[in-house]
Amino acid sequence: VGFDQILTHVAGIASISAEARYGRFGVYGDFLYMSLSAGVYGDGLVKKANLTLDQYLADGEVYYRILEGPRGSLDLRAGGRYLNLFNRLELSAADTKINQAAAAFVAAANQDLRGLLERLLRGELDPRNPPLPVPPLGAEVKLRLLQRIREARQDPVTAQRKIARILKARLNGAVSLTEDWTDPYFGFAGRYNLNKAFYLTGKADVGGFGVGSDITVQAYGALGCHVTRSIYSELGFRYLYEDYDSNGFLYKVSTYGPQITAGIIF
Q: Taking residues 60-87, what's their average pLDDT?
């Protein structure tokens, strides 16, 4: 998910972090919430599909400062990353086309039902290039529709009325899916002081190892400035990659973009 996609589809975003250090040992925590939404419009049985992706990410880690001097420092870090994804697909049917579609399902042969459903939906439930990295929730809708349509066809007298009712109910509703997992990780963080006011900072970690995801990678680099002794600001770039696969749910996504940080030192 690039920065342009985030800006185009963002519905809400928030981030907060905290750090405490005693001697060479320290703890760090970070929380990120991001909500993205997009609409897909069509001219088939579904006139609009709303996609929603809510992501909650929480990092917690401990670190040890292995190098420290007047020009900077280097930390060895280890921790855990929790990721929660909520995906929702909300459908609005083209009601004027329902009765015609129901009649077509009644007249079709059993072996042609799946192909007919695909043609009538015109790819609106599973676009080839979705605007957001959401799982194929539309596939579940299609499977249920096909099953209910086949059941309704058992009685030719009431089949068309039942199929029309099924289409209206299933294509004017929503389906959702929530997945979450936790990854261990380890990495490094460093800082280099350019002068009294400006500095360079960065961190990188890798984890997962099959515990939660197959692999997770995060990197951050920034130019920082001490506005006062207790207030600082950073302009940087953040990258996060997740490769997670569980029970048919595949999430292989890179999220990246610029990040502006303002902080207070207590």
A: 97
DSSP 8-class letter at 260? E
Contact 239, 218 (CB under 8 A): yes
Scanning the structure block, which residue is given the tokens 């399902």? 105
Please state the separation of Cα 91 from the chain's center in Å: 19
Q: pLDDT tens for residues 77-121? A: 999 999 999 999 999 999 999 999 999 999 999 999 999 999 998
For residue 190, what are its two tokens? 């460093």
149-to-122, 154, 178 alpha-carbon distances in Å: 18, 9, 28
Best CA proximity match to 7, nearest among 235, 257, 253: 257
What is the chain's percent helix, strand, coil content, to nearest 5? Answer: 25, 55, 20
Domains and CATH numbers, the chain: 6-92+174-265 (2.40.128), 94-173 (no CATH)
Radius of gyration of the chain (CA): 25
Beta bridge partners of 174: 90
**Pairwise CA distance, residues 203 & 234, whole Å:** 13
Over residues 3-59, the pLDDT tens digits come to 556 556 777 888 899 999 999 999 999 999 999 898 888 888 999 988 899 999 999
Are 178 and 199 spatial neighbours (Cβ–Cβ below 8 Å)?
A: no
Spatial distance between the Cα atoms of 27 and 30, rounded to a whole number of angstroms = 11
